[in-house]
Amino acid sequence: MSVAKILIHACCAPCLIAPYTQLSKAGHAVSALWYNPNIHPLLEYQKRRDTLRDFAMKEGFELIEHDEYGLHSFLQNTLDRIEERCEYCYRSRLEKAAQIASERGFEAFSSTLLYSRYQKHELMIAIAEEMAAKYRVAFFYEDWRALWQEASGSPRKPECIVSNTAAAYSVKRSAIVSRYEEINLSKLKTYSIKERGSKVETSLFAQKGRVDTSMFLDCLPDILSAKDLKSLIARLKEAKAKGRGIIIGLGGHVIKCGLAPLIIELMEAGYVSAIAVNGSVMIHDYEIAFYGQTSEDVSKSSGGWLIWHGL
C-alpha cells in the first residue's frame, strides 16, 4: 500500500511501539484506537489505557478512545462457548476499528494484535478482511511478529515498563484461569430454606426504644474497658455535634445476634453515617429480610452451608 492514513487498534502501548515506528518511517499517517472492553482486572485495563495516552501524547499522534469497560458483555457472550472467546475478542475489536476508520475517512485500518506471537494470526486476518468488506475500508496487513524479538531486546521507554509488566501479569492470570475447567454444578443439591434449621429469628432481636443509660454509665469505674466505653460515647457525641461522619465497621455476628434494630436506631438518631461490612453481614441480612431467620444450624441441615434455593 502506498502512503496512507491508517487507524491502528492498540491493545497497549508496548505492542504499539514497533508497528507505529515502522509505519511512521514508511511515511504513513498513523492514528491509534483504544477499544479493549474486556481487559481484566479493571486496574490492568486502566494501566494499559493510561500508558497508551502517555505514549500518544509524547509521540504526538491522534488517539481515538472508546473507553468502555465491557467485561459483563464479554462474559455474557462467551461463557457458554468459552473455546470461542478469542474470536469474540478479535471480532469486537476489528469491527470497531473498521467502523471508525470508515466513518472518519481513514484509508485503512489494522491492529497491534498482529504483532503478538500468541494470537491466532490467520483467524484475525480472516475477520479483518470480513470487516474491511463490510465497512468498505482497506485492511492494512503486515506480519509484525518479526518485530517482536527486536522490540523485546530494545530499550523500552520508562512509561511503558509498568504497562508491560501489568500485561505480563494479565497474560499469566488468564492462563491460570483458563487452565481449569468450569465448575460443574449439575450434582449440587439444594433445598428449601424452610427445611433448614436456623438458630436466630426476628422475634429474638433486640428491641428499638430509648433507654436512659446515664445512671448505668455513672456507676461504671473509670478503668479498662469501662473507661473506654465512656470515652467512645463522648467522642461519638462530639463527632455528631460537629457534623462529622461516623462509620461503623461490623461483621456477621452483629447481625446474626439480633443487633440490627439498634444499628438502625443509631442511624436514625444521626450517630451512624455509613457502615463497612463483610460478606457474612450481607448473607445474614438477606436471609433475615427474605425469611425472617438466619444463623444456619449445620447440625440440623442436610445440605451444608448456603445451599438453600428459596422457600
CATH architecture title of the largest domain: 3-Layer(aba) Sandwich
Mean pLDDT: 84
Continuous helix count = 12
> Given the helix and strand composition, which structural class is it?
alpha/beta
Major sheet details: 5 strands, parallel
What is the domain total for the residues?
2
Termini separation: 67 Å
Can you put this structure into words, describing what you see?
It is a single chain. The protein is 49% helix and 14% strand. The relative contact order is 0.11. The chain has 2 domains: 5-178, HUPs (Rossmann fold); 191-310, no CATH class. With 311 residues, the protein is of the alpha/beta class. The strands form 4 sheets. The protein has a 5-stranded parallel beta sheet with strand order 3-2-1-4-5, with helices on both faces. The protein has helices spanning 13-25, 42-59, 71-78, 85-103, 121-135, 147-153, 158-178, 214-219, 224-241, 252-256, 260-268, 279-291, and strands at residues 5-9, 29-34, 62-65, 108-111, 138-139, 191-192, 198-201, 247-250, 274-277, 293-296, 308-310.
